[in-house]
């Protein structure tokens, strides 16, 4: 029983470090306990220990998936726990003493955490160690090494047999990230108004009138007075749902958005969905100018598995699992992640995409001076996903040295500064209009220039070093 309870409790400690709970020091405690259990000489089942530990971590921290699909939630947790179980087996295989075992655990589990950025289902990078540390000092590593760097540092400090050296090196990197800013203020600012229309949580598109969200945001927008200092108005993801075979520009919703853009004399950045055949739809963010011209558009590339498309739809249907919550799949876009608005370029990460540093970086590479994250969390009860999304917006802001404007129909909406500080965070379900001045920034951080791939390859090099050290150790023993 102890072999089950100990890793279970350790995993729950790491889960508690994640938003919305946010007790970030517990990640170090949980990981340290797990490392002690994994490296015990009498641990005959490293896979089982890891599977229990990571299941206890992911089950609470990814519970938001239950509201999309219970089978998908269980499958995702089992897949991720299995990946880390395999990592534990590899680490055990590469060890020749306790110190080498701990080093192998750091590298193998850091690789497993990095794999989650793209596998399975195109990546489900929630409940990651990077997200857990957004309120702690290791978040300052983000401008230098992104979430892979934060995860590796957290594992290294927790599991290394030489903790003082690990802490000193990690501290130096964090100080470098916080002190030496390679981005700069461009000298221009924007006054941005975000509209959160409000409404209940735990709703699904198939059970609601698509006009409700639009009407709520239109009513809130009509309360705005003309302000010559205002530069734009931003609405959330897919609050405009165009039914039938029509296009947004032919709709009544378009005419009413144009009327408000003309009245306020500013461009609107609004989220729309349009049908794309009988079994697909598009999810886009468009810029509507005050003269009615749709001047820029970005179609979402990264789709939510089990939310915007149904992986293994035929298999799930065959075993009787419900797939009706996603009757049609979103058609992914193929454009670069940005729109041009108010005389500048904004990186756009629609909802789920904010969890992927590469999607945001794409817009910054192309000259974006700030980041927009229009989202829609109304399908989820509780605030696990929404809190982790705020945390991810903070990570993206730190990684890129840019402001992030996050706006949701039912919360959370917020402005996030380049230093990761959160301003004007709204409540859940409330109708709220927020106005904030942000500075436009230029330049690129080391992370922006290198991207995730450089750090993934660095982990592979570290793995090769661990393999080489094991080989040398056995050669010395044989001689």
Verbal overview:
The protein has 479 residues and is an alpha/beta fold. The protein folds into 2 domains: 2-181 and 451-478, no CATH class; 185-442, Nitrilase/N-carbamoyl-D-aminoacid amidohydrolase (4-Layer Sandwich). The chain is 45% helix and 17% strand. The protein is built from 14 helices and 14 strands. The strands form 2 sheets. Strands 1, 2, 3, 4, 5, 6, 7 and 14 form an 8-stranded mixed beta sheet that branches. A 6-stranded mixed beta sheet has the order 8-9-10-11-12-13, covered by helices on one side. A hairpin with a 2-residue loop joins strand 8 (338-341) and strand 9. Helix 1 runs parallel beside helix 3, helix 4 (70-94) packs antiparallel against helix 5 (98-115) and helix 5 packs antiparallel against helix 7. The longest helix is centred in the C-terminal third of the chain and has 33 residues, at 446-478. The two termini are 42 Å apart.
């Amino acid at each position: 029983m102890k072999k089950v309870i100990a890793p279970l409790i350790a995993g729950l400690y790491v889960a508690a470090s994640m938003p919305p709970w946010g007790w970030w020091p517990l990640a170090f405690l949980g990981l340290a306990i797990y490392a002690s259990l994994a490296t015990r000489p009498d641990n005959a089942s490293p896979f089982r220990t890891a599977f229990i530990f990571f299941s206890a971590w992911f089950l609470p921290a990814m519970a938001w998936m239950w509201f999309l699909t219970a089978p998908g939630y269980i499958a995702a947790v089992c897949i991720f726990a299995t990946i880390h179980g395999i990592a534990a087996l590899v680490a055990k295989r590469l060890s020749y003493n306790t110190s080498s075992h701990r080093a192998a655990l750091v590298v193998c589990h850091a690789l497993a955490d990095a794999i989650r950025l793209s596998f399975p289902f195109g990546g489900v990078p929630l409940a990651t160690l990077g997200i857990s540390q957004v309120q702690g000092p290791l978040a300052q590593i983000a401008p230098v090494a992104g979430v892979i760097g934060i995860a590796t540092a957290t594992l290294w400090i927790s599991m290394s047999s030489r903790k003082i050296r690990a802490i000193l090196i990690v501290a130096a990197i964090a100080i470098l990230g916080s002190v030496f800013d390679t981005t700069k203020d461009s000298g221009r600012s924007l006054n941005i108004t975000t509209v959160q229309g409000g409404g209940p949580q735990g709703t699904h598109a198939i059970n609601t009138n698509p006009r409700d969200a639009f009407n709520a945001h239109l009513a809130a927008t009509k309360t705005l007075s003309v302000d010559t200092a205002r530069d734009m108005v931003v609405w959330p993801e897919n609050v405009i749902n165009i039914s039938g075979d029509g296009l947004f520009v032919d709709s009544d919703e378009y005419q009413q958005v144009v009327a408000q853009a003309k009245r306020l004399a500013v461009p609107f950045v609004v989220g729309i969905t349009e049908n794309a055949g009988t079994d697909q739809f598009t999810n886009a963010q468009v810029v509507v100018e005050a003269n009615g011209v749709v001047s820029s558009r970005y179609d979402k590339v990264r789709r939510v598995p089990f939310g915007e498309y149904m992986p293994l739809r035929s298999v799930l249907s065959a075993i009787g699992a419900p797939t009706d919550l996603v009757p049609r799949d979103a058609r992914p876009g193929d454009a670069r992640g940005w729109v041009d608005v108010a005389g500048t370029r904004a990186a756009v990460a629609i909802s789920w995409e904010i969890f992927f540093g590469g999607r945001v970086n794409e817009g910054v590479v192309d000259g974006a001076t700030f980041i927009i994250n229009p989202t829609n969390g109304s399908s989820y009860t509780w605030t696990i996903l929404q809190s982790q999304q705020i945390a991810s917006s903070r990570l993206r802001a730190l990684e890129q040295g840019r402001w992030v404007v996050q706006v949701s129909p039912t919360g959370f909406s917020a402005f996030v500064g380049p230093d990761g500080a959160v301003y004007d965070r709204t409540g859940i379900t409330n109708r709220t209009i927020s106005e904030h001045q942000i500075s436009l920034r230029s330049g690129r951080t080391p992370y922006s220039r290198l991207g995730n791939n450089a750090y993934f390859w660095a982990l592979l090099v570290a793995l090769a070093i661990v393999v080489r050290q094991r080989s040398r150790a056995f050669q010395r023993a044989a001689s």
